Amino acid sequence: MKWKFYDIKWNIQDLGTGTQSIANLTNARYANCAFRSVAGDPIFGRASLQPFKITESRVQGQYV
Question: How far apart are CA 26 and CA 23, in angstroms?
């Protein structure tokens, strides 16, 4: 069995409210998570936009 890896690209858009949206350019889906999710919960793709608050962590170049 051969594994096929894709170069997945994401578009991060500032929504102007202090939040951002995350869109997958390959399949035109937005990153979403469950209602009242906590750290470690899975992220999945949906057609509807969900705002995220993305901030840089203490480690330069890493975001939470």
Answer: 9
